[in-house]
Amino acid sequence: MQNSEYNDYIAALREEEFPTLTGVTYLDHAGTTLYCQSQLEAYHKELTTSLFGNPHSRSDSSQLTSNAVEETRNLTLSHFNTDNDTYSVVFTAGATASLKLLAETFAWKKTVKSKNHFIYVGDNIDENNKVVGHNESVFCYLEDDHTSVLGMREVAIEKGASVVCFREQDIINCDTLYTRPTDPVCHLFAFPAQSNFSGRKYPLEWVNSVSSGKAFLKGMEWLLGTGEVTVLLDAASLVSTSPLDLTAYPADFVAISFYKMFGFPTGLGALLVRNDRADLLQKSYFGGGTVSASISRARFHITRSVLHERLEDGTLAFLDIVALRHGFAALHRLGRSMESISHHTFLLAQATYKELARLEHYNGCPVCVLYHTTDFSDASVQGPIVNFNLTSSAGAIIGFSEVDKLATVWKIHFRTGCFCNTGACQLTLGLTHNQLMTHIKAGHVCGDTMDLIEGIPTGSIRVSFGYMSTIDDVQKLISFVRECFLEKQPVITELDPVLSTSSNPVNMSGDMTDEFSTISSGTSVTVLSAGSHFSDVVLENIILYPVKSCGCFQVSRWPIGDKGLLYDRDWMIIKPSGNCLTQKEEPKLCLILPQLDLNEATLALTAAGHSPLIVPIEPSTEYEELLTRVCSDRMKGIDCGEKAAQWINHVLIGNKNYRLVRQHPAANRTDSSHQQLSYTNQAQFLAVSTSSLELLCQTMNKDKPVHLWSVGSAMIRFRPNLVFSGRPPFDEDNWEEIHLNKCKFGVTGKCTRCQMICVDPLSGERNTQPLVTLRQLRHPSKVTFGIYLALT
User: Fold this and answer.
1) Cα separation of 641 and 675, whole Å?
2) C-alpha distances in angstroms, 103 versus 190, 308, 310, 328, 425?
3) Could you confirm whether 420 is annotated as catalytic?
4) Is 4 helix (H, G, I), strand (E, B) or coil?
5) What's the average pLDDT block by block, 10 residues per block, for the chain (792 residues)?
6) Which CATH number fits domain 95-257: 2.40.30, 3.40.640, 1.10.10, 1.20.140?
7) What is the CATH number of domain 345-485?
8) Catalytic: which of 140, 420, 640, 697?
């Protein structure tokens, strides 16, 4: 079948088999692929028509389970072109658990007097390499191995082995075949069949050549004469979209993860063990089902003779194993063959690579830095993964977390960071050991959003394809990069007064109490910036958000409390877990409009088509105290009652058990400078300037016949508390201190923006602006807009 025909075939079945892909571009199949509708339906039907019991029993239901499990073992081996005479299937909790099991049970041999070594071949090609391998096991792993393989290193060293880290170019042909000793030491050579970072397919011939001694590590060839080298193949990434023939490449140990193949079930993998290597796995712990006999009053037990029975502790996840049969059936039925899947997904990756490589900014600078070790011309050496970073027209890397934000708005799913492969990340990005340590000392950890440190990237962007991907997914990704990151002309840096617009704030002021200091709009402000004083600044707007992530409440005069504007973000809506609900999950929160009446001491919430909800400002003692979470902080809150909860759930449509809570008076939450905080994310106040808003709107309205963006509409998206005028665009980035009436505010940082500013406050719908334009205005730095303030 030609690929265009195959692509059309896949596109036709997506609506029925993958309804969750409607309106979504899913490009993280290396993380997990997707399950299909018929797969779930077949599994559900089997569960509702068959009685599966614990396989350790003797009943009919137990026998049904045992037969299903054995059938699944055979299906697994058949899929990889082998059988149970050659391999055993040991079910685990995933590829990582398989690797851990192998590390903990492998027959590592140590010499009591020897010192264990760690060698990176690239830096240690000399005679000193011969200090390892004398009567001790050596664990060799590729620098491009997954973190889970690196974890085996620690177990190996603990058990007395030495460790060698190597690169692809360190593999050489050996002229001399070494004679193995009669009582050999066992070494373990590990490599990925496919890099989960770049998609590079490593030569499966290594399985045979390393095992036979025809190839090994440069400078360490002599090690072959000290013992037998067994091979671990980490196949988790490869087998999701490519065939693996274990008859042609009979690795001693193979680790796989089933959810990467079928999407469901998760938490299930296998270690495939060549039966003639079973004696190399020596296990100490035993549990239910792994022993034939044991005695409590004496140190006596007999392990089971069958390998998988000896290694699979406790009761298997037998219902998940039953589900695998439907995964294999769906893969073979819909994907047709692994060869077809491999060809199709490779061509999608190839098209992505070529299209990204073509993109250039107005000045000829490339839009992408592509990380690859192949030229994407051969499916036998390149899998369906494309790895890259985006750059500005000045050549500066754009942080992957900034790309993530816009991708969310476009409903594009990919993965960013180092993908649990720090070796490939370091090698590909050209990071030195000292740079890595600097990043770690700066607080960078795996999975965080610290994408740039001193302009140096800490990771990258990975897109990956599955058999249900189509060329439309590629086109959506390319369109996203073109619209959001390709610069067609120099960015506007100065405000054009002809196009300048003014804000039109809504004034809703109530009577003030004498208990607090108050501020008023229209007041002159003194700003300290880089040693200079500016007195031409005016406070234009004062805005509150009484309920976190809901609509705004604009006033002309308002009190300041010890946490910021009085009652600003003193309420929030929580999920059943106690975690805060935000517009990232429920964009229509912005349609809930608050109004505070200080005279009546009430908060009114309104929403179109619903009667208002009135709650008292002061929390009632009759309501339950709840433990809530906002950001990473846990604190006490007071439930606002069942009536409020019903109103919230009715407005947001659906019985989701959301609750409205008020911050507990005794809750103690502070920022980095120990200032008291309400339910706000990071600081007591957020300030923006009208000139910065005007420049943003001018840029978005440029070349448009109708100017759709005004300062007033843009301002609400950025959710400021204080809006100032009088200084040039983004001059506030350099402010240090603000004096307003008797209040003094210190600047505590810049506000990094996310996809929430793309929610239209009038409709609750998401679009791509103003984040796209803001990124263009603010590159190559983080996408910031506005400054954080704290009372001093």
Assistant:
1) 30
2) 11, 16, 16, 28, 24
3) yes
4) helix
5) 82 94 97 97 97 92 96 98 97 97 92 62 56 74 95 92 92 71 81 97 96 86 81 98 98 97 96 96 85 84 86 92 97 94 97 97 95 96 97 90 90 94 90 86 83 89 97 97 88 56 38 65 91 89 95 94 92 90 89 93 93 88 76 85 92 83 84 82 93 93 80 90 94 93 90 89 86 80 88 88
6) 3.40.640
7) 3.90.1150.10
8) 420
